[in-house]
Every structure is written in structure tokens, then in C-alpha cells.
Design a protein that fits this description.
The protein has 240 residues and is of the alpha+beta class. The chain folds into two domains: 110 residues, Hotdog Thioesterase (Thiol Ester Dehydrase, Chain A); 127 residues, Thiol Ester Dehydrase, Chain A (Roll). The protein contains five helices and ten strands; from the N terminus they run βαααβββββαββββα. The chain has a ten-stranded antiparallel β-sheet. Strand 4 and strand 5 form a beta hairpin. The chain starts with a strand and ends with a helix.
């Protein structure tokens, strides 16, 4: 397979609740403009993965994506998918030629069915508190209806369960590793269960990694993912 390349214009939708996507606030943190959500960048990579690997990838494949540098609202980015022995290597490049995100995809992921006992059903907090996550903590279960069959539906749900379990200050999604287990139906009701896989601090930022399982309306597994975010930015801990 020859390398696939596509270009996308990265846009922030109006009214995003996370202030890092707003120009004025992002500039206070030292960025040029509002940052485009990582889930949108994941979606660009997913489009090439689906094109190269087909429907089988959407049903049983995997995609990991890490967001290393910001992509700004209105930038045209290039995404390249090149073949490697076990699947695809992916890069997302900004107009200056900087690699802002890297990823890898396989048509059929390894591993058996997840152990549902590791993903207990818990009530969501009625009043989420600050992001005081601890390793092994069970998250409140999120129940939502998928608005559309977006190829980035799994990391978007990862963001939603994170925000439903904590009252977050401005934060950043930095990585998602998704294993597909089935295709959701249009506007299907889904549930997201999970636990905190780990927490750590680096360069003044506080990170959390979630271990999540997404189930369809008939309780069939749809995806398993690891979702990583900076839940306390170093700039805000120091004071902008």
C-alpha cells in the first residue's frame, strides 16, 4: 500500500466548555490561539485508518494516538498513513511541518473479550468535586446516546466520562488507545464504565489515565480504551 495523505482544516466548535479551546484564555497560557480538541485530531487519523483498513478496522481494529503539540483553530493539517508490518503508522503535521500527533492502527487487534467485573457499575456523583483521582478508583458510569456515528466516538466518550466524574479546571486530552469490539448503531444508547489506571505528575502537570469499557444498548462490548488527560495544568497551578 502506498502512503495515504489527506488534509483537514481543524476547527473549534462554538461553545466548547473547556476554556483551553478559547483564544483569549489559551493565549493567557502561552499558546497562539485556542487548541483544537484531541478527539478531533484522533478523528482525522481514524478517517485514514478506515480508508486503508476497511470496515474490519471499525469492528475489531485498534488505533492509538498521542497529541504532542497543539493544533490551533483554523489550521490546515496534513495526515499521513504509511504501511508497516503490523498495520499503519500515522502522523499529523501542522502548516509549519511540525509533527503534532503520532499514532498507529491495526485492522484486527489482539486480545480476548474484556472482563466486565473489572468495570463495575457505579453512580455518577451528583456534584462532582475537583479532580482528586486515585489509582484503582471506580468511576461513575456514564449513560448517553451517541449523537452520530463519528469515527472518534470512543475518545469523545472518554472525555465525557472524565468530565462527568470531576469538576475540571481547563484541561487537555493528550492520548487515547482504542480497541474496537463492535460497531455502535446510529443514535444508540451506550454506557461507559471505568476505573483510574494511574495518576502522575510531570513538568508540573498532573495526569490521569482511565481504563474504560463502552457497552451498547444490549450490553454488548463496543470498545475498550485507555484515555489520558492533563487534569491540572502547570500554568494554572503556578497562576497564569
Amino acid at each position: 500500500m502506498a502512503a495515504l495523505e489527506r488534509r483537514f482544516v481543524a476547527r473549534n466548535e462554538p461553545g466548547l466548555p473547556n476554556a483551553v479551546h478559547h483564544d483569549e484564555f489559551a493565549r493567557r497560557l502561552g499558546f497562539r490561539a485556542g487548541l483544537v480538541p484531541g478527539a478531533d485530531l484522533y478523528g482525522f487519523m481514524a478517517e485514514l485508518s478506515a480508508q486503508a483498513l476497511g470496515r474490519r478496522w471499525q469492528e475489531a481494529g485498534a488505533l492509538s494516538a498521542r497529541f504532542n503539540s497543539p493544533v490551533y483553530d483554523g489550521e490546515e493539517v496534513g495526515v499521513c498513513a504509511s504501511q508497516r508490518p503490523d498495520g499503519l503508522a500515522l502522523e499529523l503535521v501542522n502548516p509549519d511541518g511540525l509533527v503534532c500527533a503520532t499514532g498507529a492502527a491495526v485492522a484486527v487487534a489482539e486480545g480476548g473479550q474484556p472482563d466486565r467485573e473489572q468495570y463495575p457499575v457505579m453512580e455518577l456523583p451528583s456534584r462532582p468535586g475537583p479532580p482528586a483521582f486515585v489509582q484503582g478508583q471506580a468511576l461513575g458510569t456514564l449513560q448517553v446516546q451517541l449523537p452520530s456515528q463519528d469515527l472518534a466516538w470512543a475518545p469523545r466518550l472518554g472525555n465525557q466520562i472524565l468530565m462527568a466524574n470531576a469538576d475540571l479546571p481547563p484541561w487537555m486530552h493528550v492520548e487515547s488507545r482504542v480497541r474496537h469490539l463492535g460497531l455502535p448503531g446510529d443514535a444508540e444508547a451506550v454506557s461507559v464504565r471505568g476505573t483510574v489506571a494511574g495518576t502522575w505528575e510531570r513538568r508540573g502537570h498532573r495526569f490521569v489515565e482511565l481504563d474504560l469499557l463502552i457497552l451498547g444498548s444490549d450490553d454488548r462490548p463496543l470498545a475498550q480504551l485507555r484515555h489520558v488527560a492533563i487534569v491540572e495544568l502547570a500554568q494554572l497551578r503556578r497562576g497564569p
